[in-house]
Amino acid sequence: MQIIPIASGKGGVGKSLLSANLAIALGKAGKKVVLADLDLGASNLHLVIGQASPKTGIGTFLAGEHKFEDIIEETDYENVRFIAGDSEIPGLSALKIFQKNSLIKKFQSLDADYLIIDLGAGTHLTILDLFLLSPQGIVVTAPTVTATLNGYLFLKNAVFRLMAATFKKGTKAAEYLDKLKNDAMSLQRLYIPKLIEQIDTVDPENARLFRERISQFHPRLIVNMIDEPKDADKAQKIRRSCQQYLGLEVDSLGVMYRDSMQDRALASRLPVTVYKPGAVLSQAVFRIAEKIIQSETLQFDADSNNFEVAAEEANDDFSAKMSYVEDLLGAGALTQNELVELIKTLQFENNELRKENTLLKSKIVKAAESGYKF
């Protein structure tokens, strides 16, 4: 299965439009597709594909109200199934570590040719982690200066997140990076290739591992809402910047012209590829789908590192929560009943963390037994 997370540095550039219509185009080509709305906190992908307001979705699954299999809905479109996001559930935009990992495992076990994940805009850690589920995520941008800058910054943050997943706590590479974080301006000005050269002098093994992983990372770029051919040049500028400053190779999937037909399709509660397949915008989506079908499915190596980073973060989160509880108790801000409920929540999250750690240890043992070198 090829996982295709679709992200953007800012909202309003057509990310959900692409997600919905790309799913339908792939389905028309005979591919089994699952379309998931993970623009949590602002979920509206069901409107783009003309689905009724969802009664089940990511929120009801994470709340334990439904099994994951029960939130996967059939659609009116050939070979396309849909997972809604539940925008009305408070706090859904900030997933806890164990919730994120549970969701990732369910996604990875889906029976489909393609999983298309419509992510929220911005660079929240959850968004970056979900984008890094695959080396082949898509970043959608527009030709405006702010949109192209935000597209580049999203990719820059993704590279730093990949670096954090590679440099484990306690390694010389991680310590070196922590020192640089204290001087945020220097870190921002430093080119990633130059940074890795410096890390190579203190931790050559981790520098080698990061170079290997970033060479596997091939995000893809689409420039939407262009009005004239010269707007397509923005894609090349982003690609050159990523290559020079991030040491990252970005592939271009093409461009999509601004098309008033999209507004008519949305008003009719139909994807534009269904409302008018011959429209300029529809034809662009079909071309992008064909390129994806022709592309090889890539994967990162050593997925266990993501789980290890998550476990470390969960430990940090738990410690921070305990300090917060102590502060509240000292100030008399918690009632006895509130304290009981909070402790129950902490116990539940701690149990989930233990399960994650047990799974991680099991993976490490199996990898060691099979001769895998960390």
List keywords for this structure.
11% strand, alpha/beta, globular
Description:
The protein has helices at 15-28, 45-48, 58-62, 97-108, 125-131, 145-166, 172-181, 184-189, 192-202, 204-216, 233-246, 261-267, 272-275, 280-294, 304-331, 336-369, and strands at 2-7, 33-38, 72-74, 80-83, 114-119, 138-141, 220-226, 251-257. It has 374 residues and is α/β, with parallel strands linked by helices. Strands 3-4-2-5-1-6-7-8 form an eight-stranded mixed β-sheet, sandwiched between helices. The longest helix is centred in the C-terminal third of the chain and has 34 residues, at 336-369. The radius of gyration is 22 Å and the shape is globular. Residues 307-334 have low confidence and may be disordered.
